[in-house]
# Entry
Amino acid sequence: MFRTSAILVLLFFLYSCKSQQNTKKEVQIAFIADAHLQDIFAKFEDSNYNGIPNPATGEYANIRTMNSQLHSTRIFNENYFAFLEALNDIVKRGIKQVVLPGDFSDDGQPVHVRGLRKILNEYSQKYGLSFYVTTGNHDVVRPFSQDAIKTDFLGKEGKEQIISSSPDNLGKNKKELEPIITADIKNWGYKETINEMRDFGFFPKKTDLYWETPFSNYNYENYNFEEAQKESVLEKRTYLIKNTNLYLPDTSYLVEPIKGIWLLAIDANAYVPNEKLSGESNNPHDFSGANTGYNNVLIYKNHLLNWVKKVSAEAKQKGKVLIAFSHYPMVDFNDDASPELKQLFGANKMQLQRVPDEEVAQQFADAGIQIHFGGHMHINDTGVRTSAKGNTLFNIQTPSLAAYMPAYKILTIHTNSDLEVETVVIDKVNKFNSLFPFYEQEYAHLKEIKSKDIWNKEILKAKDYEDFTNWHLKELVRLRFLPEDFPADFLKSIVNLSGKDLLLINNDKTEINSLLKSNSFTISDFELWTGFDMIFDFYRLKSADELAFSKIGKKRLKQYELICSQLKKANDPKLVLWAAIFLKTMNGEPSDHFKIDLKNNKIDNLSVK
# Structure
């Protein structure tokens, strides 16, 4: 009896130990890309200008015009409130690690970078959040500080207000109001931006278990904070630009904030030198911007690939979970429709110059990156590539809070190989419409001066922030994408047609009747929308992917599918391409809620269909 009891106690003890091992606490990390924070309530340090008073509340704000927002791929003003909403949501969920993969600022202006630092410091001190940041093309516009100008701030009486860092920038810009001059609106370079944001990953902290850069001379075994501090100075973190004698900073870093988790921040800003250089060591005008991303990294920052290989090998050898992040995508973000998009729209349209070459995914997959979080494109997407050597890379595109669909990502690390990704939409935002009284003034002014192509005032009836971003995208399509990206003849052949016209384009009534019957549709169902609605929904799918499915609706998506089946047989090759593009955009990898098995290189959808 005693022996049996002892065995039972032993078995219970062993089971308890095993159970404790299995219930190891999961690690969660939040990713907020492309916050593009503009501190709309900030004060300039060298000017008394405080913006203009809100007609409803009297509170001063310094915002951009609605007109400028609706011609831009990002919102400038309301995303301030969305960013705070996202941080509050992260706090409620008990998540402590937050990653910002670039474009954390509007354009690296001192006033906005300072404003962001204050917010991050507040959330760090109040709620114990730790932030890890990398640079995007809007944070360090050029490697060195430069004067800048914005001509589209909103001024008194709804007029445009120019704000410039120098009177020399004004040129022939039309001046409705006296320009404001402040150094706080210039574009900071690496040195200034990184020093202001130094507490958020760019430099080592005592609480880090490990921290290094591509230029560090120590290793994991002999790591100490003092040595890391010495080697973290920006002067020691530079690389030689190909075909020049110029050195530029590289702010990439590796950090272990939690035991067993390595965050790899890749500074993928690659600045291309001009053919003719000034001869100065810090002239911002010697370089183009960095918005191309990884295609130029392979040419100008090849040292990063060698460092990534080293880090990946060490992570594997030490049993660390390696999570890479940078501002730019490593994989095609168009659901592999980029070849057709190039044929239909042209290589320089639809932001196709930002699509990474296949070599990028191959190189980084073979360098050991398995999971990478990117931004830059303001889209929700997942791209998967397996290299010729059999290495698989999962590229997760994090949406922007300043565009449709506003969201952030949560990564849950269950085990070293079992990961889960969830997308959190920020649909309800406190004070999202508090700036609308300003826009009423702007709209009245535009009407008064008989401005061409005035924005649709219906946007001011948006019921919540998600609806507001939906309106933003709709107006962006109407005011910018259609005139700039679409070939005129193709647009004419589709935009004003009804769904019925598109369905009957081949005039095969027997097949159409069969399709309608088998899918429980009537021909009148297709008369309720136009080609413009299809184009707008294409952009919703392109931007939000799976997040747009429920907004468009199953019936409409099925109707688009049937129409594409007919367009594929059309005599017009452009309509055939459009059908192929649309179908690919509807059928990408899981991008809302999914799990990744790094051991077997599998991705499984967890979203409710």
Residues 1-23 have pLDDT under 50 and may be disordered. DSSP finds 20 helices and 21 strands in the chain.
